[in-house]
User: Which sequence fits this backbone?
């Protein structure tokens, strides 16, 4: 994997070129959501920034602690400083008065919060624009790719117990916090991998979670029977509900809530199977992690594999959804890296020697 110095950076005015690309993509995406909201009966109401701001306040102490531990590790074990405590204090003091970094980081975080709101809105509009039409096709593709078997049936001997299913459910819901931390870390980082991650994040959601998801509008195995498409996945859902009687599976509550919203709001609900954005963003997190250490990279790779298995076993996705999500994420990472490579100039000495060199 590449290191942080593979794609150097240079600041043009107040904002780096890579950040200008990020803000340009966000502005274009939000503009599309606003225009769609003004021309349809479904208004764009960006509540996500407020929700993320509340979550940030709750999780900030943990983020700060993790970043502080990372700083100590970087200075004491990577840089092998002779005076780690003194240099750590010096770095913290330097960051405290680096107002440009603080303003840029907050601006990127707020911009990403607004982008997530617009991406969520466009996801809710999928079935308004294109009703579910591809579930039968992707269910059949799954069988073709897996030698005539539904992937959930192949997984059942390994994942069918209540303990494993609960663990997969916890990991699946924990994905949000892992992704939120990576976005936070990248917003407050200055390394090129941080810039690549943020641009790839926007591209993955815009192209995969919105555009491709609209073209291949599908609901997923959990809603297969409710759409009148057959009972292919009824045994899977019956098994999950039987496990829920043993001990609560929160995924089932979320699935019921989404379907209730879908029926109540004339098809306006955040239901979308293809591609799996849980898998796509988990792959992005793994690629981002590999730029910092192999150990962290392999840990997040295992997490991505767990999310992939959970997405199928919990009835959210067809296996091909995850394969598509992973491919889209890898393509967006590669595209973002090349885009930034062409946009950025050589790393200035002033930034290379600044306290922010210890940021992710």
Assistant:
């Amino acid at each position: 994997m590449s290191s942080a110095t593979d794609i150097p950076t240079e600041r043009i005015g107040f904002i780096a070129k890579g950040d200008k690309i990020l803000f340009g993509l966000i502005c274009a995406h939000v503009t599309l959501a606003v225009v769609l909201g003004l021309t349809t009966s479904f208004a764009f109401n960006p509540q996500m920034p407020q929700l993320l701001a509340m979550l940030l306040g709750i999780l900030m102490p943990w983020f700060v602690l993790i970043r502080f531990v990372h700083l100590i590790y970087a200075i004491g074990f990577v840089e092998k400083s002779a005076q780690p405590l003194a240099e750590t204090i010096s770095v913290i003091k330097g960051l405290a008065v680096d107002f440009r970094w603080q303003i840029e980081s907050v601006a990127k975080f707020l911009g990403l919060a607004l982008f997530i709101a617009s991406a969520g809105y466009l996801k809710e509009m999928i079935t308004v624009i294109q009703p579910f039409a591809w579930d039968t096709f992707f269910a059949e593709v799954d069988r073709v790719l897996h030698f005539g078997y539904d992937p959930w049936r192949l997984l059942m001997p390994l994942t069918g117990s209540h303990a494993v299913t609960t663990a997969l459910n916890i990991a699946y819901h924990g994905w949000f916090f892992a992704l939120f931390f990576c976005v936070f870390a990248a917003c407050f980082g200055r390394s090129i991998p941080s810039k690549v991650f943020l641009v790839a994040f926007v591209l993955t959601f815009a192209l995969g979670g919105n555009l491709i998801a609209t073209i291949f509008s599908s609901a997923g195995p959990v809603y297969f029977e409710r759409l009148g498409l057959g009972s292919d996945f009824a045994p899977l859902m019956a098994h999950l509900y039987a496990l829920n009687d043993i001990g609560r599976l929160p995924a089932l509550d979320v699935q019921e809530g989404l379907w209730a919203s879908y029926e109540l709001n004339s098809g306006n609900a955040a239901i979308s199977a293809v591609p799996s954005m849980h898998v796509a963003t988990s792959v992005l997190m793994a690629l981002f992690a590999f730029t910092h250490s192999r150990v962290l990279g392999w840990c997040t790779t295992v997490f991505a594999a767990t999310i992939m298995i959970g997405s199928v076993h919990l009835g959210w996705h067809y296996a091909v959804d995850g394969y598509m999500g992973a491919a889209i994420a890898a393509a967006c990472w590669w595209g973002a890296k090349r885009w930034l490579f062409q946009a950025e100039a050589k790393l200035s000495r002033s930034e290379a020697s600044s306290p922010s060199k210890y940021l992710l």
Observations:
- Confidence is low (pLDDT under 50) at residues 1-14, 345-358.
- The first strand starts at residue 11 and ends at 12.
- Residues 11-358 form one domain.
- The chain has 15 helices and two strands.
